[in-house]
């Protein structure tokens, strides 16, 4: 027993030494280099100021210089003044000094301005030594883009309600594809879960920022509001299906099979998280991919139903027109931003968002042709 107690004391003492050493090490890493604010927008030819702060213990002179991602000195996005800032240690060897850095826009683009401390040291925290800079051609185009953004947000938000009203007016859901409804509810539920997790869950946000140290959380409040509203409105339409005339309609085996596959993806992703193979961030990304996949197939059942019935009665054209407006304005905003920020790579380099928007608009065109031309 005495030997056990002696061993326990040794282990405890060792742990105490390690903890003390770790604390001392963390206390040494107090010199911080950081920008504020960490996001700024500049117009070509105009100047915007940001603040660089050095805070913490400093025992030797250091200098800070700057680099711009995806740029060279010959094709820089902004002119940085001063190009180098020198810091001299004060008598107390503790510095808290802020310097103004002027950025003059030279050409449109989106990039990160990085600050580098020289000589470098492992005891310097430079995790916030960057600014996400957007250089635009025109403030007017930024305003136009904002108006376009709110237009498609409102159009997409209201696009659910003409169908709800039509069902109520007719007291019938005959002509409305149950496959479309089931897939639509699944897609919006996956999208809402993704948005809520990245907007509200601190652990998921931390995982995202560890993977993207200079990134922004890609979900805004309006994304959360839209997705939750979409789940509510689609759910309300499904509730109507239980109370209004529906004929012989039911969810097809094909749609059930598709949803089963997606359910298996969710279950497998959950198991991977439970076993430590996946992060929760990966799990919710998989949910967002399900939403994208659903978007590719959800309109097909309704188009086929209209074709078989040779009629669009029961399928609200108001829903289609608002969805067409939302999709068109969404793509228009991407084109305006691509021109204003000279950022065409975000559209054509990774064309998933633009492609999905175009895909939805093309289906809306098909529904418009069915309603106004083929099956009048």
TrEMBL record:
Subcellular location: Lysosome membrane
Reaction it catalyzes: L-cystine(out) + H(+)(out) = L-cystine(in) + H(+)(in)
Any GO MF annotation of the entry: L-cystine transmembrane transporter activity
Domain of life: Eukaryota
Membrane topology: Multi-pass membrane protein
A Gene Ontology term for the protein's cellular component: lysosomal membrane
Residues of the signal peptide: 1-24
GO biological process: L-cystine transport
A Pfam family it matches: PQ-loop
Keywords, comma-separated and alphabetical: Lysosome, Membrane, Repeat, Signal, Symport, Transmembrane, Transmembrane helix, Transport
UniProt keyword Transmembrane helix, yes or no: yes
Transmembrane portions of the chain: 139-161, 181-204, 224-245, 257-281, 317-336, 356-375
Family: Belongs to the cystinosin family.
Protein name, as recorded: AGAP004116-PA
Source organism of this protein record: Anopheles gambiae (African malaria mosquito)
């Amino acid at each position: 027993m005495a030997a056990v107690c002696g061993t326990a004391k040794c282990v405890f003492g060792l742990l105490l030494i390690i903890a003390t050493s770790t604390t001392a090490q963390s206390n040494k890493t107090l010199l911080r280099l950081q920008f504020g604010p960490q996001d700024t927008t500049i117009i070509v030819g105009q100047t915007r100021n940001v603040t660089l702060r050095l805070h913490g213990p400093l025992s030797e002179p250091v200098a800070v210089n700057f680099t711009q991602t995806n740029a060279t000195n010959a094709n820089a996005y902004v002119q940085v003044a001063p190009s180098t800032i020198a810091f001299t240690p004060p008598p107390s060897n503790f510095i808290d000094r802020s310097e103004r850095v002027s950025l003059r826009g030279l050409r449109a683009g989106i990039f990160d301005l990085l600050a580098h401390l020289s000589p470098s040291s492992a005891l310097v925290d430079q995790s916030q030594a960057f600014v996400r800079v957007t250089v635009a051609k025109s403030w007017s185009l930024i305003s136009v883009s904002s108006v376009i953004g709110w237009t498609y947000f409102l159009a997409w938000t209201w696009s659910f309600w003409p169908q709800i009203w039509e069902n109520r007016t007719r007291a019938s859901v005959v002509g409305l594809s149950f496959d479309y409804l089931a897939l639509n509810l699944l897609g919006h539920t996956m999208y809402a879960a993704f948005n809520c997790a990245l907007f509200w869950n601190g652990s998921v946000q931390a995982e995202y920022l560890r993977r993207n140290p200079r990134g922004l959380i890609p979900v805004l409040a309006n994304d959360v509001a839209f997705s939750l509203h979409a789940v509510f409105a689609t759910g309300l339409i499904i509730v109507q299906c239980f109370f209004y005339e529906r004929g012989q309609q039911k969810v097809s085996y094909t749609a059930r099979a598709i949803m089963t596959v997606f359910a298996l993806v969710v279950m497998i992703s959950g198991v991977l998280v439970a076993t430590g193979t996946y992060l929760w961030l990966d799990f919710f990304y998989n949910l967002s991919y399900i939403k994208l996949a659903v978007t590719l197939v959800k309109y097909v059942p309704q188009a086929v139903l209209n074709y078989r019935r040779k009629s669009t009665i029961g399928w609200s054209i108001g829903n289609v027109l608002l969805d067409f407006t939302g999709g068109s304005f969404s793509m228009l905003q991407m084109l305006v931003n691509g021109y204003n920020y000279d950022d065409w790579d975000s559209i054509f380099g990774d064309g998933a968002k633009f492609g999905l928007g175009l895909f939805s608009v093309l289906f809306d065109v098909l529904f418009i042709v069915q309603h106004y031309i083929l099956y009048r």
